[in-house]
Amino acid sequence: MSATPRSVQGDPSKRARRRPALVRWWDRTSEKLRRLIKPLFKPLYRRFQIRSVIAWFVPGWGEVTKSKGGLSLVGNLIGDNTDSPLIGVVADFGSGKPAAFDVSALVERQGAQAVVTAGDNIYFQTGYQALVGDLYGKYLEAGAFFPATGNHDYSEGRGIALFDRYFDFLDGHRWYRVVLGPIEFFILDSHQALHHPEVFNAQYDWLEKAVAESSAPWKAVVVHHPPHSARSRSQKEFRFPYDQWGVHLVLSGHDHTMQHLEFDGVHYVVDGAGGGSLHKFEEILEGTTFRREGTYGAFFLQPQGDSLHCRFVSVDDEVVHSFEIPLRQTAVKA
Prior knowledge:
Layout: E1 6-7, H1 21-48, H2 54-57, E2 71-74, E3 87-90, H3 98-109, E4 114-117, H4 128-142, E5 145-146, H5 151-155, H6 160-166, E6 176-180, E7 183-187, H7 190-195, H8 197-213, E8 218-222, H9 242-245, E9 249-252, E10 258-263, E11 266-271, E12 288-292, E13 297-304, E14 307-314, E15 319-326
Parallel strand pairs: 1-2, 2-6, 3-4, 4-5, 7-8, 8-9, 9-11
Antiparallel strand pairs: 3-13, 6-7, 10-11, 10-12, 13-14, 14-15
């Protein structure tokens, strides 16, 4: 773990760009062809246990490689409101669909001063600049964009190596902490943890220690696979003793819905409506205070005095759900 937090430098090369019309046409056309052709090859893939033809040509593609972790950062905020910054959270947005651009426009329109993602920043081979930079380039330029990995960051877009290359300010770290004003985010790599038990244990130990030593008034954990979700996709492995550690909020994606659940005074948010194909619910979970399917949008949080104001906002600028977390709810650490 870094003894001294590192300041984040912006990267002007990742500013949003409008690609030439021919390139955009080819991206759309090649993706349509891929979606048509891929099902035809599924029997062959199953017969020979092939995950993708890309694996033949790109060494290491799709492998869940181990990485460094534990980097400590101080992120930038766009604007002067550093005591009460508005942070936008998006997940499962890397589809290149119009909805993904609608959500990015919403984030900027709402006045978010920084963006944190809960994974699946990319789904297709178009690349990180097209699927991330062209949407959130303003934040990347300013050093105010902080991604978590998702399972698709490993299995699509020619593999996780491109994540490391594009987000080079992380220096190869895929779990890390970043301070944004009065909030500290502890960002995990759940996909890697689920494939490597030793990495899971390392992240658990790091998170417990990092949260304990944090002096931030507000503490939020980001983990792509949700500990609680109403689509039979709850990843129980990540039901850590957050209440004992003093965590206020756990932010996830993976399920392309909006959900808010509460257990033991800790708020669990599933915010997977950032631009991928939307999901439907399969069950109702105890602890659910809000859930919504079929709506694209983003989650926003803003500390104001002794409360953390949280809200889901749809792409139509409708606040579909809001709640507050009083600072006095902070759990007593064991």
